[in-house]
Structures are given as structure tokens and as C-alpha cells.
Amino acid sequence: MRVIFLGPPGSGKGTQAKRLQEAQEIPQVSTGDLLRQAVRAGTALGKEAQGHMDSGGLVPDQLVIALLLERIEQPDCARGFILDGFPRTVAQAEALEQALAQKGMPVDAVVNFEIDLSKLVERLVGRRVCPNGHGEWHVTFNPPAQPGTCDVCGAALIQREDDQEDRIRTRMETYRRDTEPLIDYYGKRSVLRSINALAPMDEVMGQIESLIGAI
Ligand code: AMP
Q: Which CATH superfamily is domain 2-26+79-213 in?
């Protein structure tokens, strides 16, 4: 099963993708996570990406497309994958469509996380992430068992550089300009399924599972 999670930053795509990954035993592929790994490892890609990421803009299409296409060639993606944060532009969607068409493996569903953009600043400002990639929590809406501590490895949780309020506003503008047109793009291809991303987390998972069950 090949699924795309589409939605603005803070709409819960990452959290739900991690849960679906466990339930369906197919990997979550997050270009944001892959890029942050490259930044941490200090690779040429990481150096090129960092400025774009810190400012809340997008990393250039050709870099992200190459990264994503290489990732979905890995054996763990053979049974399918959940794309989280890719595509973010029409050019990325076209590149993905072309690559999957060559394999005869089209996308089965695009889950559109519908949410009022005004709710997102609060969600993102309160987000805290594990520095070792074990997931994310929210100081109010989804707190860890011990405040400020990763439930999995015990590391001190951190706030992402791009979760500062001014950067969040830039990311929202980027979303509106570059990513929102994908709703129309996938709508025309009859694969778009919308969910109410403002509902409590378990309810959102329920909505996703019933969509997936119908594929
Ligand atoms: P995320 O973790 O998905 O919020 O992504 C964090 C940042 O990584 C974004 O604000 C972008 O700068 C960059 N990024 C992640 N995915 C993409 C993508 N598909 N295209 C361009 N930039 C991306």
C-alpha cells in the first residue's frame, strides 16, 4: 500500500504516520526526518539543506526528489510506504508519479489532513521532539510521561529551530503557496481522501484506518 499524508505543518501527519507504520508494518518515509539526519551527519546535502530548513522555506526540488526516490528503492519499501511531508510541490508530485508509473505501482490514496491554519501556531510552538528521532510530543495536548523527557530513550526533548513563531509563519506561507495546490492535483486524480485533523488523536487514527480499510 502506497499512501501520501498531505497537510500543513503541525496537522499531525508525522504522529499518525508513525502509528500507521506500526499497524500496517510499512515504513513512514519523512523527507523532513531524512533531511535532518543529513544535517546532523554534516553531508553535502545537509549543508545545502540547512539554511532553507532553518528559515522555514523549502529545500530545492531536485535535491528532495533524488533523496526520496533513493529512499523508496530500499527493500523495506517494497510492500509500500507512508509518505510524510513529500510531495510538497507540484514538481515533486509529478516526479513521484512518473517514477511510480514506471514501476506500475501508483499511489493508492492521498490523505488530506484538513485543519484550520489558525490552530497550527499553538500546536507547533508547544511541540517538543526527541533529539534521537523517537518521536514528538506536545507540552499540553500530548505530554510525555515525564515532562521534557523522551518516553523511549529518556533524552531531554528539544524544540525544533523551525518551530519558533516567526519561522512557523513563514512555513505556513510556504504551505499555502507551494503545497496547497496539491489538493487540487490529487483531487483531479481521484485519490484524495480528506480527514478532520482537528479531532482527538485516536479519532484521527480511526478516520485514517477506515479510509485505508476501504482501499
Ligand atoms: P517537516 O519535518 O516535514 O516539517 O520538514 C522540515 C523542513 O524540511 C521543511 O520546512 C523544509 O525546509 C524541509 N523539507 C521537508 N520535506 C520537504 C520537501 N518535500 N520539499 C522541500 N523541503 C522539504
A: P-loop containing nucleotide triphosphate hydrolases (3.40.50.300)
**pTM of the complete model:** 0.91
Q: Where are the alpha helices (DSSP H) in the chain?
A: 13-24, 31-41, 44-55, 61-71, 90-103, 120-125, 165-174, 181-188, 201-213
* Cα–Cα distance for residue pair 171/204, rounded to 1 Å: 23
Confidence tier at 152 by pLDDT (50, 70, 90):
very high
Question: 179 CB less than 6 Å from ligand 1?
Answer: no
For residue 215, pLDDT over 80 is answered with: no
DSSP one-letter code for 142: B
Q: Is the CB of 32 under 6 A from ligand 1?
A: yes
Closest atom of ligand 1 to 60 CA is 21
Mean pLDDT of the chain: 94
Contact between 107 and 191 (Cβ < 8 Å) = yes
For residue 84, the ligand 1 atom closest to its alpha carbon is: 3
How many other CB atoms are there within 10 angstroms of residue 206's CB atom? 13
CB of 67 sitting under 6 A from ligand 1: no
Catalytic residues: 13, 88, 127, 160, 171
| Residue 171 Cβ < 6 Å to ligand 1 | yes
- Cell triple for residue 199? 479531532
Secondary structure (3-state) at 195: strand
